Amino acid sequence: xxxxxxxxxxxxxxxxxxxxxxxxxxxxxxxxxxxxxxxxxxxxxxxxxxxxxxxxxxxxxxxxxxxxxxxxxxxxxxxxxxxxxxxxxxxxxxxxxxxxxxxxxxxxxxxxxxxxxxxxxxxxxxxxxxxxxxxxxxxxxxxxxxxxxxxxxxxxxxxxxxxxxxxxxxxxxxxxxxxxxxxxxxxxxxxxxxxxxxxxxxxxxxxxxxxxxxxxxxxxxxxxxxxxxxxxxxxxxxxxxxxxxxxxxxxxxxxxxxxxxxxxxxxxxxxxxxxxxxxxxxxxxxxxxxxxxxxxxxxxxxxxxxxxxxxxxxxxxxxxxxxxxxxxxxxxxxxxxxxxxxxxxxxxxxxxxxxxxxxxxxxxxxxxxxxxxxxxxxxxxxxxxxxxxxxxxxxxxxxxxxxxxxxxxxxx
Length: 412
Ligand SMILES: NC(=O)c1ccc[n+]([C@@H]2O[C@H](COP(=O)([O-])OP(=O)(O)OC[C@H]3O[C@@H](n4cnc5c(N)ncnc54)[C@H](O)[C@@H]3O)[C@@H](O)[C@H]2O)c1
Prior knowledge:
The protein contains 13 helices and 13 strands. The protein is an alpha/beta fold. It has one domain: NAD(P)-binding Rossmann-like Domain (Rossmann fold). The longest helix has 29 residues, at 18-46. It starts with 17 loop residues before the first helix and ends in a 6-residue tail after the last helix. Residues 70, 72-76, 94-99, 123-125, 145-149, 164, 168, 187, 189, 240, 242-243 line the site of nicotinamide-adenine-dinucleotide. One of its GO terms (biological process) is galactose metabolic process.
């Protein structure tokens, strides 16, 4: 020590000692650089030029690129298969909440060539994600299948249904409008008609849905129709009746989640009974005013249904809206269905006949003459037993659904 006392660091307001100041400047520069880097990454990520162009991101003459929402699900996967077979370019968007990645894997194995099929994992309830998908891909048309789709569940969780069906359709439609995608094929349902007084159901039958599922679909239809009044979008709304069957070549099938069994449809219940997963079938209501006292429904094979979509896509025209029932036009009773299922599975399924279930209506079947006439579409797979046999064959060889293929890594 030289006896000199070092001045104690003091600071005055607005003044710093040079060393501290240097350090602060340095830290400030680092912070600024970090902020600028983050900003650049953000701008780049959100600019369309950031992503490497792929066949999916540009329009190509002679190639129609279809966005299939819900393409990992039962109907969506069959539609994607048909589109790919017909040389369309397909992007599947699905959040796998209900569908099976195994179905996508089957499609990828069938069509491995670049630029044929891509899968994007996303939730349609997320507008940012949906917009990003539309920004980064050049779609020519959208087939909007994605939805939760169980009448019983909709009465227990109505908000989920309005959100997933109505609100998500709005998100898709807004993205289509914002990104100039001009063709929409929409999956609607005969549940939008409710309990019509007169059969068969035509497209002019008043729509008075009686459950949240039917109401949510009707609202989605209304949104689409209102939008289409002032737009040049080509819109096709297809109202399906009860969908059964599976790919005749056995590549795809219907594999609903086991937890949805209680809300399931009649074909699933019949197969579960035939497999011994449930002890038997409970047929509710034998005193309806129908020939054998059980309810009557119109069962449409999924192969016919996807054919209707392809025909609708081909006939979709700007500024035009087409609304079509997709059914066979022939009603089959529950008893008839169960007998066909027994024959298709070769199992003598145990059947208990119980009281009516509230909310079930006696008869529902379509008048498909409009779609026959205008889209030149007629149901071909109208043998109930054969459709059930095809579905049963797939199910028997996939008793764990698509689970085997699920072990393969998710690639997207
Ligand atoms: N199956 C029938 O009998 C029937 C009858 C009439 C109408 N429909 C309609 O057909 C369409 C397809 O039905 P399905 O039987 O194939 O059902 P499904 O449950 O097998 O498929 C629906 C698909 O949509 C996906 N999905 C659901 N919500 C999503 C979301 N928010 N974001 C992304 N993906 C989502 C699911 O993961 C699933 O893969 C639905 O719109 C349904 O309302 C079905």
